[in-house]
Amino acid sequence: MASILTTVDSSFIGNGTFGYVFRLGKDRVVKVPKIFPGPENADFNWMNRSALKTEKEIYDRLGLHKGIIQRFEAQDERLVLAFAEQASLVDTFAYAHSRRVIVQDIDLQNILVHEDVLKLSDFGQSFILPQDADMEMFCVNDTTPQIEILHLGCILYSISTWLEYKYYYFDENRWPRPEELPKTDGILCASVINKCWKGKYKSMEAFRKDLVTVLGS
Question: Fewer CB within a 10 Å sphere, N or C end of the chain?
Answer without folding.
Answer: C
